[in-house]
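Sample 3 of the quickstart, ligand iron/sulfur cluster:
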Amino acid sequence: MERGGSQVALDKLTGEHSMLFIRSEQLFDLARTNSLWYISFGIACCAIEGLMSASGPRFDFDRSGVFFRNSPRQADVMIVAGTVNMKMADTVRRLYEQMPEPKWVVAMGACACTGGPFREYPNVVMGVDKIIPVDVYIPGCPPRPESVQYAFMELRKKIKAKTEERLAARRSRV
Ligand code: SF4
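Result:
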């Protein structure tokens, strides 16, 4: 069925490729980039060494909009802090799947990146990227909380770049 003139005009004003839609998407992306909530979830020593101190008064991640949430359904970021073994792999994957889109993953420490000092053990996963996609890797054993701060700065850059890419593709279709 052919669409009427008023419907086409409304589409141009509020449709998927309209300036209003693009601007509101930009606004949501800006809000999202500056309020990255991570799931409160740690597997081994990295969680204590880096992650817990990151939320403490000295490093105070809250001031940059980075908070932890206790439910994966309210989290944007998963920081995999610790050794992932075969027994934990399903839990890590399930938590990741419970997070809403868009979502990002940070592999924190040598263990989460590559298996670290435990890689010779047969029950250790050789990096969490074998089970879920990873956006930023933090090397070290254990990494300092500053490294986690830096990882969030890199993650923001990555999200902004993706946003620009998506908006440019939309603009070219207008
Ligand atoms: S990288 Fe080091 S500090 Fe982190 S979980 Fe592995 S052994 Fe522990």
